[in-house]
Amino acid sequence: MKKPSKGDREAMKRAIALSLGSRDRAEAERVRDMLRTRPRAEVGWSCAISCQEKVLRTRPWQPVSAADYVAVTDRDDEGSPIMGRAAAAELLRRLLAAGLSRYEPDPLRALARIEAERGT
């Protein structure tokens, strides 16, 4: 993981807070344990992925924009949208174009907020 920007750190901070406040006690405890033993950026990255997987309801094999291996140029191989790489890449492109972090815990809500502010 490259050094996160200020925007990335803020998004990761929100993802950590959401995970700590989760109704799922095991999830909250897992995050507390990670905060004691791992770098905060690593915990934030993990929480961002977890949050995005929940709100986007991805399948286990489908990536989310917070996954560092997702690039804006990714596409699905052999035209199979079930893999989800093209969708993750498109979401990443939209986030970055809006000036948001790839680690937004709820990317669709964040994009909707930005679009409402811009009046689009």
Textual characterization of the structure:
Helix 1 packs across helix 3 (40-56). With 120 residues, the chain is an all-alpha fold. The radius of gyration is 14 Å and the shape is globular. It has one domain (6-118). Helices cover 58% and strands 0% of the residues. The mean pLDDT is 92.
Largest pleated sheet: none
What is the structural class?
mainly alpha
Proportion in β-strands: under 5%
Please tally the helical runs, counting DSSP H or I stretches of 4 or more residues: 5
Indicate the overall shape: globular
- What's the pLDDT, averaged over the residues? 92
Helix % is 55-70%
H/E series = HHHHH
Distance between the termini: 33 Å
The strand count comes to 0
Cα radius of gyration in angstroms: 14 Å
How many structural units, i.e. domains?
1
Quick gist of this model?
The chain is mostly helical and 120 residues long. It contains five helices and no strands.
Question: Any descriptors?
Answer:
120 residues, mainly alpha, 5 helices, 0% strand, globular
Sequence-ordered SSE layout with sheet pairings:
Elements: H1 6-20, H2 25-37, H3 40-56, H4 85-97, H5 107-118
Helix pairs in contact: 1-3
